[in-house]
Amino acid sequence: MLPDIDKIRELVEMMITNDLVELSVRDGEQEIALRRSGPVSNDVVVGAVPQVVAPAVDGGGAGGNADGAESTVGGEVVPVDFVEIHSPMVGTFYTRPDPESPPFVHVGSQVGPSSVVCVLEAMKVFSEIKAEASGTIERVLVEDGEAVEYGQPLFLVRPA
Amino acid sequence: MLPDIDKIRELVEMMITNDLVELSVRDGEQEIALRRSGPVSNDVVVGAVPQVVAPAVDGGGAGGNADGAESTVGGEVVPVDFVEIHSPMVGTFYTRPDPESPPFVHVGSQVGPSSVVCVLEAMKVFSEIKAEASGTIERVLVEDGEAVEYGQPLFLVRPA
Amino acid sequence: MFQRILIANRGEIALRIIRACRELSVEVVCAFSEEDAGAAYLGLADRAICIGGAAPRDSYLKSDRVIAAAEVAGADAIHPGYGFLSENAAFADKCRECNIEFIGPSADSMRLLGDKAAARTLAKKVKVSIVPGSDGVLEGDNETIKVAQKIGFPVIIKATAGGGGRGMRVVHDKTDLLAAIKQAKQEADGAFEKSDVYIERYIDRPRHVEVQILADRHGNVVHLGERDCTLQRRYQKLLEESPSPAIDSRMRSDLCSSAVKLAKAAGYDNAGTVEFLVDAKKRFYFIEVNARIQVEHPVTELTTGIDLIKAQIRIAAGEKLEFSQKAVKPRGHVIECRINAEDPDENFRPCAGVIEKFRLPGGPGVRVDTHGYEGYRLSPKYDSLLAKVLVFQPTRPEAIRCMQRALGEFTIEPLKTTLPFLQRVLAHPDFVDGSIDTGFAERTF
Amino acid sequence: MFQRILIANRGEIALRIIRACRELSVEVVCAFSEEDAGAAYLGLADRAICIGGAAPRDSYLKSDRVIAAAEVAGADAIHPGYGFLSENAAFADKCRECNIEFIGPSADSMRLLGDKAAARTLAKKVKVSIVPGSDGVLEGDNETIKVAQKIGFPVIIKATAGGGGRGMRVVHDKTDLLAAIKQAKQEADGAFEKSDVYIERYIDRPRHVEVQILADRHGNVVHLGERDCTLQRRYQKLLEESPSPAIDSRMRSDLCSSAVKLAKAAGYDNAGTVEFLVDAKKRFYFIEVNARIQVEHPVTELTTGIDLIKAQIRIAAGEKLEFSQKAVKPRGHVIECRINAEDPDENFRPCAGVIEKFRLPGGPGVRVDTHGYEGYRLSPKYDSLLAKVLVFQPTRPEAIRCMQRALGEFTIEPLKTTLPFLQRVLAHPDFVDGSIDTGFAERTF
User: Fold this and answer.
1) Which of C167, C236, C385, D432 to pair with B90, CA 20 to 30 A apart?
2) What pLDDT score was predicted for residue D352?
3) Structurally, how many domains does chain B consist of?
């Protein structure tokens, strides 16, 4: 007997949701093979919103650490072994505690999980943001004084 | 036994809706393989309209003679070498010139291009319909007194 | 009321009539061509019957097939929509001979109003002003000059067999007249093999304003206010609105009562539109009557709250109008934009093909009439009208803003459409001012 | 007028507010959760800012994040929509402390009307009838019997800590009262660890009728007529209409003037809804004020032609109402159906997933508000409201027919929706009669 239509429908949904282009399933006698044309994303990317980092193909959680696949930041390809520090809130990004002080970190700085990497200001309250990772600051992704949204990548860290 | 036409129809619809280009399903002896060219139309078949004969997969012209592919009439698979006689107008189908006379043709009748196969009545005018093909009447596809629309298949002819 | 109506049309107007039938609980059968097989709107009818091939002459214009389809479907009335057979008096006669009601005016009033000279004579009789003209072919130079002086310069010379602007010639001064007549005759002869010409006063930079009327078969005639259809391109309307920004209430009342007088004099029934030109000095001139429903009828539906298609059907079924003139109370400001699948950057060349993405505008004050959807294949064989977007708002400035946001929401891919062109119109100071004329679109864009 | 408004909401109401801002030429920024990233309505805003995770408590309910988003976006006002932070007086205060206007009433009137006892006291003061009740916890058997007799049987016993029907008990006769109170207290104690109960007159088979009001900050209060929201299921409204088929013009005028009196007494401003129960004898009782815009506000927009969201924004910007009570002239009949992604055959279980086919109804008399489209993934994390379909027609029977055809056109696949359920309601003789009560849907389907 042929596989159930509902099962096929479910597979197709899975393909679309996850933007797969090919899928084949076999079990002994039974086989289902599906292929879709090109990269047809049904989701609309909102132009006004800074892109949240997401692995290109397998569609893992937005803002997750980039592992196991290449991911893009601002259109550039980022090697797989970096870790991102994301904004845990909405606010204004500052690299230093006050205008007279040096920045908390710069490219090349060594950080540990509890190293403060920046402050974020929201409603006149300044919050120190910790690295939550160990390694070397590879890149600062946001300009001093720039507004950031929840989940936005702030730093790229090369893990220790 | 061949897979159910409705199941194939459902799969085709699924392909169109989800923009699949290839789909194949197999179970032992049974197999359905479908392939679409590029981004194709999503035309919906209107249920209220008698289905015009169309090849199952490659979507050639509606109402054309069935050549080069299998086509379906009322859900059954029709071998490729039959020819259909289509209605050239809208009207009511009669198998005989008047209630007292015998039918113009019946299954097994030999016809030539100018043989009258039926009459169609529209606006109180009766028009004789010619076979336009040579061969043997294989099947009468419409009931006596039934309304037919333009392009509707009336007879199946096995070519001489 | 009818039991079953056959629609002898396609696309958005077929869908519009299906909707009216559904709301009246009348069964509805849609005739369609092979080209339109599979279109979604057909699925909303109780039945659809293929009547022929793609070319209109093989299907939608084939009156015998349409009537045969009505007969086999057991329909007791035919709605012709607009275009195709809608103004064909012979078709209306044939329907009625077959005991199928034609949803439209009597064939006699269609013939009367379809004859330009007869319509002008009628207008004169009921004292509705017409564009002053020679009322027939010009004979001899002396008569020509006399007639022209009576009409008043500038005048326009037109070929009786003419159309599309060919053979037309504007003359501003008596001294140029005879030479221009001679040239026009030569041109007409070359183009139409018939050299007859006539002259009319040339209306410079006019507005196009039309009045919607409804008349039943019991002698009741009402008007439903006017529509301003000045925004045109090559005689194709692109945007319509009501009320007209160019006329005041006294003039509106004159225009509307003129329209009612004409309809009464013609013994007209059902829905019709009386078209006028309005010149820069706010004088208006009757041009013609469109003896059918029009593309832009929803403008009036939104100002008045009256469903014109339902009204057409009720009138054809012999019912009396449900409301008096006094009960018709237009409210707010309505604009309609026609979204055609045409490329405004390529001289409005029609664009056919499959719609891949189709997101309609919605929300407050927005009405959309469209037969399109994702996956619909727009045929190159027919009119390129894909959707009508209408907005209704308390005032004209609000209506313009609402239309801007509605068009901004409308996504149609990958076909080119008139959407960007309409956005340019809505943002143009002359349009916002209400100071455009029928030549505005062609001069400006 | 504001320069830039932040929307602290999602889905259809966020889209509704975006549309209003566009039409007012006010810039608009939309806050969104990670779960809503990529939704098409966000693309219609000038900017969208992610404020947190999917769970409302991590995003749409997180007032600090919402205000921070408004700050970084440079918004000078926040529209809260309905639900989430819309009736949170502390949030309104905090916005205003940060020099960001909260588009809604003052925090004081929100607090006053949010307190059930205070609202009842206010209603008594301005002589608006309330459901007769014990006005507080019952002490001792004698007092209980006295109060119950004064209220009149049947009475309903409710737990002060109650909700969802638990602890409620209807008593038809004095002899059953004390035993029922005892049981109710035990039940309340078990359910809420608090045994306090109070009694109210039991309104059998009531209708739910509410009055829309608009009040500016200059002391002007107008009502915009009523909405009948009797069709409910577990206190969820499913269909709303105006005018109410159950009240006459005298009663309408009483209801509406009561609503205005209450709003004035509460020092209320912005849009609000005053809710009443109407019993079988056509007596009405004030229940509560919803101090925000409501899901069903478009019903009133269509009867009155007034854009309520624009009015909210103008009022919050300090403008005076543009119209007087006399200028508000409701017209025709409007019905709204809520299309929820729920399976009516599976006890209205929400259905999430990707919409594969989505074809909207359109044409005359139809308005659709929806954030859905083909390819939209409806999240299980939020409300299942997917679309609101509204119809406006001259009369109620026409509105019902129009809604039937509109719902018939609406194609949503593969998600289950309330469409078939609503069709059953529209075809039910009791609904057509206008003789339903708030228990109708649960009893009948």
Assistant:
1) C385
2) 93
3) 2
Residue A73 to residue A83: CA distance in whole angstroms: 12
User: 0.90 cut: is pTM over it?
Assistant: no
Q: Is there a domain that residue A48 lies in?
A: no
CATH number at residue C253: 3.30.470.20
Count CB atoms within 10 A of the CB of residue D46: 17
- For B129-139, b/e burial (b = at least 16 CB within 10 A) is bebbbebebbb
- Same structural domain, D60 and D157: no
Q: Please write the tens of the pLDDT for every residue from C18-63.
A: 999 999 999 999 999 999 999 999 999 999 999 999 999 999 999 9
Q: Between C298, C374, C409, which is nearest D364 by CB?
A: C298
Mean pLDDT of C220-239: 96
User: Is residue C29 a part of any domain in this protein?
Assistant: yes
Element containing residue C18 per DSSP (H, E): helix C11-23
Q: What is the pLDDT of residues C404-426, one digit of tens each?
A: 999 999 999 999 999 999 999 99
Q: Whole domain around residue D174: which residue ranges?
A: 132-201
ipTM computed for the complex: 0.79
What pLDDT score does B42 carry?
34
CA distance A19 to A41: 6
Query: How many whole angstroms separate alpha carbon C160 and alpha carbon C194?
Result: 8
Whether residue D353 is found in the same domain as residue D220: yes
Determine, for residues B62 and C43 on separate chains, whether the beta-carbon distance falls below 8 Å. no
Three-state DSSP class for residue D307: coil
Closest by Cα among D99, B141, D262, B148 to C49? B148
Mean pLDDT of C112-139: 88
Residue D109 lies in a domain: no
CB contact under 8 A, A36 and B14: no
Note the residue count of chain A.
Answer: 160
Other residues' Cβ atoms within 10 Å of the Cβ of residue C221: 20
How much helix, strand and coil, in percent to the nearest 5, is found in chain C?
Answer: 35, 25, 35
User: Strand B91-94 relative to strand B20-27: parallel, antiparallel, unpaired?
Assistant: unpaired
**Interatomic CA distance for residues D343 and D326, integer angstroms:** 44
pLDDT single digits (tens) D96-140: 999 999 999 999 999 999 887 889 899 999 999 999 988 777 778
Whether B120 is covered by a domain: the verdict is yes
Are both B18 and B97 inside the same structural domain?
A: no
Is B45 part of any domain? no
Q: Residue C96 catalytic?
A: no
Chain D residues with beta carbon closer than 8 angstroms to that of C367:
362-364, 366-367
Helix/strand/coil for D11: helix
Q: Based on the domain organization, do B72 and B133 belong to the same domain? A: yes
The answer to whether residue D110 is domain-embedded is: no
Nearest 5°: the CA angle A60, A65, A68 is 70
Q: Are residues A95 and A146 in the same domain?
A: yes
Residue A127's domain comprises: 56-159
With CA atoms as reference, report the closest residue to C58 among D315, B90, A155.
B90
Check CB contact under 8 Å for C68 and B40. no
**A2, A9, A40: residue with CB nearest B25:** A2
CB C144 within 8 A of CB C117: no
- What strand order describes the sheet that includes B153-159? B83-86, B153-159, B135-140, B110-111
